[in-house]
Amino acid sequence: MADGTVTTPPEQAPPDQSPREANRAVGARARAEMSNFDTVNHWFDLAADRLGMGDDTRAVLRSSYREVQVQIPIRLRDDCVHVFSGYRVQHNGARGPYKGGIRFHPEVDLDEVRALASLMTWKTAIVGIPFGGAKGGVNVPADKLDEHELQTVTRSFIDKIEKVLGPTRDIPAPDVNTNARVMAWMMDEYGKLHGHTPAIVTGKPISLGGSFGREAATGRGVVQMY
């Protein structure tokens, strides 16, 4: 340009790409720049449009009912205090108690947990079971902790969020880097405050009232779907 500014020409589709394919590619790139929760709501809005959902209902279902974020300071074996963040998001409980796993991973953040909680609402509704949707997580590198450290993180997290949990309120389950052993710790910690409550978690060991087939349930579900 004469004034020295530089303009960027509009992006051109490859010569062998149809206009429809080009539009899809642009849409995919735009979604890649969205947050996890925005991406979930993008697909929710498309479904809501097809259903003719009203604005009032849509506004409720696009946001979470409750979001809990807690600080988890733990002294690890390096003798330093490490401060982790724990999250529990309850998206919608219109169909019943909130249901969803708790994951331990260093990249866990509130946006991811929001998105996963929302997806749990739709999953429980689609299969017709009387539960709502929730999700939880701690941004802890579980694979780098020893058993004592992992147990300490687990118990501290449950101790800090126990007021929003319960068999008729919100029921955690295993997820990334959590398993039956972690569920047993959660169940025990909750029991210290509320008495013996096996129904506070699913995915616990068989010896503590867990269900046979739980370990393979997710994989079997994928096979049934595809």
Give a nutshell description of this structure:
It is an enzyme of class 1 (oxidoreductase). The chain has two domains: 19-58; 64-225, 3-Layer(aba) Sandwich (Rossmann fold), CATH 3.40.50.10860.
What does this structure look like?
This protein is of the alpha/beta class and 226 residues long. It folds into two domains: 40 residues; 162 residues, Rossmann fold (3-Layer(aba) Sandwich). The protein contains seven helices and five strands, in the order αααβββαβαβαα. A five-stranded mixed beta sheet has the order 1-2-4-3-5. α2 packs parallel to α4. The termini are far apart.
List the helices and strands and how they pair.
Layout: H1 19-32, H2 36-51, H3 55-61, E1 66-75, E2 81-92, E3 98-104, H4 110-126, E4 132-138, H5 147-161, E5 170-174, H6 180-194, H7 214-225
Helix pairs in contact: 2-4, 5-6
